[in-house]
Amino acid sequence: MVFKRRDRRSVWKATARFFWPQGGWTRAAKYVRHRLTRLPDPPHRIARGIFAGVLVTFSPFFGLHFVLAALIAMILRGNIIASLLATFVGNPLTFLAIAASSLQTGHFLLGTGRNVLQESDLSLAEKFSGAAADLKHNFLSIFTHERAHWDQLALFYNDVFQPYMVGGIVVGLIAGLAGYYFSLPIIMVYQKRRQAKLKAKWIALKQKAAVEDAKASHNETGPR
């Protein structure tokens, strides 16, 4: 196959690359910044795409961040590629901070009085595993006579998903707006500098072509 890797990576190596990409996170961040600033679109459209991408990284819809970022960018008439690149904000290095801030803000707004920073990771993992077990059981119960169980799913929704969604919207809006207003002037300056460089290069090429044409004309009209 044309796009098949020559060196097949093991599961452990692929997992390690997910948490630490080749070249490190600094190089990955520079690559994303480079791609964002070189997108062929007006700065405000690119900044809208960045807003959409940053916003969805604070949502609990894992696995759908690309789709949601693209949809929001389309609604806002932003750059879709910029929205996809901006989801880089949600990565293994920032996930814990994003999840904690979203959950804590959600519990505060819902008035539950919970402090997620004082809860153990085991308790949160148990809620995820319990919800997954209920989903599996309920799916299999469609083909059997077993009754569906909703206790663990309800606990997960009330303690994790709902607070995460409510808090993620608020924190995501704040982070998205910060990304918009921070990136807009940077992209404007970069594009102006790039246009100036391209214009200077074009003028230099035009002058060089004019000089070569003048030399060629002189050689043709000169003495034989």
From TrEMBL:
Transmembrane segments: 50-73, 80-100, 164-190
Protein's name according to its UniProt entry: DUF2062 domain-containing protein
Xref: InterPro entries: DUF2062 (IPR018639)
DNA repair found in the keyword field: no
Source superkingdom: Bacteria
Pfam families associated with the record: DUF2062
Domain DUF2062: 27-194
Keywords: Membrane, Transmembrane, Transmembrane helix
